[in-house]
Write a structure and sequence with these properties.
The complex is a heterodimer of chains A (about 250) and B (about 240). By secondary structure, chain A is α/β, with parallel strands linked by helices. Helices cover about 40% and strands about 25% of the residues of chain A. The N and C termini of chain A lie far apart (about 40 Å). Chain B has one domain. In chain B, about 85% of the residues lie in helices and about 0% in strands. Classes of the chains: A alpha/beta (about 250), B mainly alpha (about 240). At the A-B interface, helix 2 and helix 3 of A face helix 3 and helix 4 of B. The structure holds adenosine-5'-triphosphate and magnesium ion. Adenosine-5'-triphosphate (ATP) binds next to helix 1 of chain A.
Chain lengths: ~250, ~240
């Protein structure tokens, strides 16, 4: 479980996040949704500690991450896996070395053990026979998979994904979503996914936080998202043609 | 000035929260190979030609028949060992290695690779930059020696080929009034320049903000700033070392 309390962040004069409170549950895929530029990525970076919030605290299973000392911080970081919006794979390394990298720096495993583990994760995300390829030689969807494999290789307790299916075709998107959801349940970990894709929301959203201009306006399960009575959320949800037809059909 | 302050803080950050010695050993080795492969050929080419041209020009300017011919190679030696090898080559090194360091780090920054390292709890500046600086300080002095030798060889080949100077005269000139401290001075300069180029270029690349355009800007700035730093430091070092 991850809990955030009163997170605020401004860049210069621009207020990006305002007093965000939320709880992300273990064994569920938690989503942060909202339009482009509402501060989703910034919130995620505040949670993992890449950006220091001006105010507020982040708790990882009751451990205060914001005020933790160096040892506790690196201990918590060892339990984090993250998939970045653009993949953030190391382009100087091949696929296999990318996936093995967290094990190189975080564990004392032998080379064979690391290779075994990396191969297991690559297989888990449906990638085989690409071990020796460089990052520039694989497709966007494969990059996302490699990113997920790297994020889960060290058995994380917390998994963060920033727009895992941006730039992918609808079919591959669904596969990646399902993969994340399956891994979450399989490993019983706390997963937070940032997205603005309604397909993902309806597909895997077990707990959803809706951000609007840096504020949290709604939270709940995807079953309740169509009757939230929050006009801003309705605008977001029914911007999708299929969704709006569904509503009109119902009414 | 504010930039200089940030540069100093950046250098300080390289030494906190370090990884294991073994990790650095591997990284430094990789960087050394990278630097060697990238620049050895260019260095040999440039310095051989400069040595050759210096020989021809010195001979051309020596119209007085009373001056012995071996002075030609002595002049070539003085020029190349003290200035050409460490300083002029440093400018080329900044253009070749400095720009690739800044470009590489800048790309890692904008594609969030540096963030990815930080999330894993790695001190990214130390992990990425320290090996580059150490490898530069190890490799550049060797490149200085290499280019010194190449320029003397270049002078020899051309000088004897077009009969400006006989082989014996050339070798005698190289030995005449030779002061070995010149080599130490050249190497000290080399080490200092290598540190400046690697650290300035890494600094510029590491703090890139934005996109591909900014990576280009950071790369150019890295080279410009390194070149200015080299020239200032050269003046300073010549004053205290000679
Ligand atoms: N390092 C930064 N410095 C200044 N402003 C920033 C910085 N990072 C983000 N911002 C600003 O914060 C706001 C929120 O950005 P953020 O990246 O969180 O949006 P997002 O919700 O993730 O959007 P998208 O869906 O397009 O990824 C934007 O207006 C952006 O300009
Ligand atoms: Mg984003």
């Amino acid at each position: 479980m991850i809990k955030i309390k009163d997170i605020s962040k401004t860049f210069g004069k621009k207020i990006v996040l305002q007093n965000i409170n939320a709880e992300f549950e273990k064994g569920k895929t938690n989503l942060i949704i909202g339009a482009s530029g509402t501060g989703k990525s910034v919130l995620l970076k505040c949670i993992v500690g890449l950006i220091k919030p001006d105010d507020g605290w982040v708790y990882y299973d009751l451990r205060n991450f914001t005020e933790a000392d160096k040892e506790t911080k690196s201990e918590i970081r060892r339990e984090i896996g993250m998939l970045f919006q653009g993949g953030a794979l190391f382009d100087s390394k091949n696929v296999e070395d990318n996936v093995m990298f967290p094990l190189d720096v975080l564990t004392k495993m032998s080379y064979d053990e690391k290779l075994d583990r990396a191969n297991h994760c690559l297989k888990r995300v449906g990638l085989e026979n690409v071990n020796k390829k460089y990052i520039s030689e694989i497709s966007g969807g494969m990059k996302k998979r490699v990113g997920i494999a790297r994020a889960i290789v060290n058995n994380p307790n917390y998994l963060f994904c920033d727009e895992p299916n941006s730039g992918l075709d609808p079919q591959t998107s669904v596969l990646i979503d399902e993969l994340i959801s399956e891994i979450t349940h399989e490993l019983d970990i706390t997963t937070i996914v940032v997205t603005h894709d309604m397909n993902s929301v309806m597909g895997i959203g077990e707990k959803i936080i809706f951000l609007y201009k840096g504020m949290k306006l709604w939270e709940g399960h995807h079953k309740d998202i169509t009757h939230s009575n929050v006009p801003e959320l309705d605008d977001f949800v029914f911007a999708n043609k299929v969704m709006s037809k569904m509503r009109d059909g119902k009414v | 000035m504010k930039g200089f302050g940030r540069y100093v803080i950046f250098l300080g950050s390289l030494f906190v929260r370090r990884e294991s010695f073994k990790t650095y050993y591997k990284l430094v080795l990789e960087e050394c190979v990278q630097i060697g492969v990238n620049s050895a050929f260019l260095f040999m080419l440039v310095s051989t030609f400069i040595g050759a041209v210096t020989t021809v020009q010195t001979a051309f300017n020596m119209v007085n028949p009373l001056i012995p011919r071996f002075v030609i190679s002595q002049v070539v030696r003085e020029m190349t060992v003290l200035e050409l090898a460490p300083t002029v080559m440093a400018l080329i090194y900044a253009g070749k290695i400095g720009s690739s360091m800044a470009g590489g780090l800048g790309t890692m920054r904008i594609t969030e690779q540096i963030d990815a390292l930080e999330v894993m709890g790695i001190n990214s500046s130390s992990y990425l930059v320290l090996p580059k600086i150490i490898a530069s300080m190890l490799m550049y002095p060797m490149l200085v020696i290499l280019s010194g030798v190449c320029s003397l060889v270049g002078g020899y080949i051309v000088g004897t080929f077009i009969h400006i100077v006989t082989p014996n005269e050339y070798v005698a000139g190289l030995r005449f009034a030779f002061n070995p401290t010149e080599i130490s001075v050249a190497l000290i300069k080399g080490i200092v320049f290598a540190f400046l180029i690697a650290s300035i270029s890494s600094f510029k690349g590491y703090f890139t903000k934005g996109g591909a355009l900014e990576v280009g800007i950071a790369t150019t700035e890295a080279v410009t700033t390194s070149v200015i730093a080299i020239l200032l430091m050269d003046y300073f070092l010549v004053n205290i070392l000679l």
